[in-house]
Amino acid sequence: MVRWEPGTAERLQKVALELFATRGYEQTTAAEIAQAVGLTERTFFRHFSDKREVLFQGQELLVQAFLDGIEAAPEDASPFEVVACALRSAATFFPDERRPHSRTRQSVIDRNPALQEREHHKLTTLATTVATALRARGVDDVAATLAAESGATVFGIAFTRWLREERSLADIAAEVLAELLTLAARALRPAR
Amino acid sequence: MVRWEPGTAERLQKVALELFATRGYEQTTAAEIAQAVGLTERTFFRHFSDKREVLFQGQELLVQAFLDGIEAAPEDASPFEVVACALRSAATFFPDERRPHSRTRQSVIDRNPALQEREHHKLTTLATTVATALRARGVDDVAATLAAESGATVFGIAFTRWLREERSLADIAAEVLAELLTLAARALRPAR
């Protein structure tokens, strides 16, 4: 479990998100964010390399949650079973009380194509990292890529639904993964 | 089937690829490309909006090949069966005689992160278009996204293998899709 420690970085992040959501991302400067919590721009840049990082910091923790799930998977788990473990672990990163924050963040990202591209790139990086971890478990190259990419797709769809619904991300992700497996099974049925 | 008509655009494309591969993409200008086939820079820009487009023009034809495959799928085909049709249709876009061209193009893209990003974006757009076409067939939202994203993943993996191997893209894509379905089926087996 990752702790969500309230500190300077979190205060900056919270107020930045409010400013991005109300004034607009482009219209908000790092100096204004710092000022709003009584800090200097210099302090802002001690915590974030740039304004965009306010929205993306902590990504490595999410990736780590996936990797923790992979490590915890039984040794004889199939690639998709490992991915299921990874998704369960990643879901702990988004407890329901984080939904309001995530919704605001998403509304900011949805209004800015460059941020959308960055967010999409996050999923790509995630898939690459998961594939590497699967290969390290002895999964062959193509199977590792297929399972990892599928995991990232399931996570992306589940996360979007989690923002709209009130159920837990773990439940939604399990349901979306099950739907993928069922769809695949339907295509394996004997030809009619 | 898409015809590969030799004309001014194709001559420009061919020589551009040679220059990108030998001198480097960044080091080659539109004027130099035009000059190499005895044309003016102005003529170049009548065929391509910029230098990058030389590498990406025709993408809509590939997307159309996917859509043609979807349209040709039997009405009662399951989402993944429709995706299989789309992949077969898309494979006709890359006959084996196109492999040398595609290999050179890929070597240029592999050496430039911005081009890699653009290439990746192509797959994203493809997935979105395929998902829309599946929804239009009455496939529900999540299933359409899952099948479309899986199709794009399979296409990406198959294409990379096609560049390295000597087998047809249709065969490789069918094999990668079958591997995905088999992996998924393994995860559906009863718990041990």
UniProtKB/TrEMBL annotation, chains A, B:
Annotated DNA-binding residue span(s): 29-48
Q: Which UniProt keywords apply?
A: DNA-binding, Transcription, Transcription regulation
Q: Name the domain of life this protein comes from.
A: Bacteria
Record's PROSITE patterns? HTH_TETR_1 (PS01081), HTH_TETR_2 (PS50977)
Has keyword Secreted? no
Is Zinc set as a keyword in this record? no
Molecular function, one GO term: DNA-binding transcription factor activity
Indicate the segments forming the HTH tetR-type domain, all copies: 6-66
Q: Which InterPro entries match?
A: DNA-bd_HTH_TetR-type_CS (IPR023772), Homeodomain-like_sf (IPR009057), HTH-type_TetR-like_transc_reg (IPR050109), HTH_TetR (IPR001647), MftR_C (IPR041347)
Per the UniProt record, one Pfam family is: TetR_N
Per its record, how is this protein called by name?
A: DNA-binding transcriptional regulator, AcrR family
**Source organism (scientific name):** Amycolatopsis pretoriensis
